[in-house]
Write a structure and sequence with these properties.
Shape: globular
Distance between the termini: 35 Å
Number of strands: 14
Radius of gyration: 19 Å
Order of helices and strands: EHEEEHEEEEHEHEHEEHEEH
Largest sheet: 5 strands, mixed, barrel
Strand content: 25-35%
Structural class: alpha/beta
């Protein structure tokens, strides 16, 4: 059955609505960044760039690093943008845009996020790198989909109990990363942990300016959560939805974090741009082997 025009919106040139992309414009290995200015900080290392476009905060460049064809896309900030980016990328590879019908054989993308994050633990310092082994979704985006089979109810129940989670909020979800991708990026100096994904920067991450919080102690509860080998190491705004939608759509996803702040001790990196540049080079050296 063909997907309606109102559900899969295409531009007059046949590209997907928000990303402004056609299927031939992307690789099967894609790097996500939040900041549109970070796209060229990655592609400046490429041997060549064959395609470039931008619409709103969504900037895309595709080219070659060594012999590997890669696409770099800026997602902007937050879970809602990830919902747009991942659904439209999946449409590019798994829906025939001319007939608007699902393809009989589905394709899987490799998605690697290179982002910044704040540590919640004293032993994960600023300027460190961290692989998100799991993502804790406390923003509610994934509940708009049928999510049976992608979560970890046992750990979720312990987190809900530990935090005395408000029933008016969406139930927290914990999603695993892609173990297939993780093995390419492991290293002796790379930290690992569960990444919390908030739906906003201020109140959802415990920051107070003028508005009081529903739970002023939530950050402390996040810091102190420990169940078996699980603890929450860092906080950001994208990873859980990348992991969740990738699992649901059949894609592989991994989040790499440059730790530029430590919320536990109040530290902030003296040179966050340098840390991000180092993580970019670390990722590029390994992504060619996928």
């Amino acid at each position: 059955m063909a997907i309606k025009n109102s559900e899969l919106i295409l531009n007059p040139d046949g590209s997907v609505y928000h990303l402004n992309l056609k299927p031939e414009n992307i690789s099967d290995t894609i790097i996500f960044v939040g900041d549109q200015d970070r796209v060229e900080k990655i592609t400046k290392h490429f041997d060549s760039v064959e395609f470039s476009t931008q619409k709103r905060e969504f900037k895309t460049q595709t080219g070659y690093y060594q012999d590997k064809r890669l696409t770099v896309i800026s997602t902007g900030i937050g879970p809602d943008n990830i919902d747009i980016v991942l659904n439209e990328l999946d449409a590019l590879v798994n829906i025939n845009l001319e007939t608007r019908e699902l393809k009989k054989e589905l394709s899987s993308l490799n998605i690697v996020r290179i982002g910044t994050s704040g540590s919640l633990q004293n032993d994960i310092p600023v300027d460190a790198f961290l692989i998100s082994t799991h993502a804790l979704d406390i923003n509610g985006m994934l509940h708009f989909y049928q999510i049976n089979g992608i979560s970890n109810p046992e750990i979720e129940d312990e987190f809900i109990k530990h935090t005395d989670w408000d029933k008016n909020k969406a139930r927290p979800i914990i999603i695993n990363n892609s173990k297939y991708l993780e093995k390419y990026f492991e290293g002796e100096d790379i930290h690992k942990g569960m990444t919390g994904t908030a739906g906003g920067f201020y109140g959802p991450q415990g920051r107070v300016l003028r508005l009081p919080l529903q739970d002023p102690e939530l950050n402390t509860k996040l810091d102190n959560f420990s169940y078996k080998d699980y603890r929450i190491t860092n906080f950001e705004m994208e990873t859980s939805v990348i992991y969740g939608l990738s699992k649901l759509l059949g894609h592989e996803a991994l989040s790499l974090n440059a730790i530029i702040a430590n919320r536990a001790n109040g530290d902030f990196s003296k040179d966050p741009k340098k840390v991000v540049d180092q993580l970019i080079l670390y990722a590029l050296e390994r992504i060619v082997n996928i």
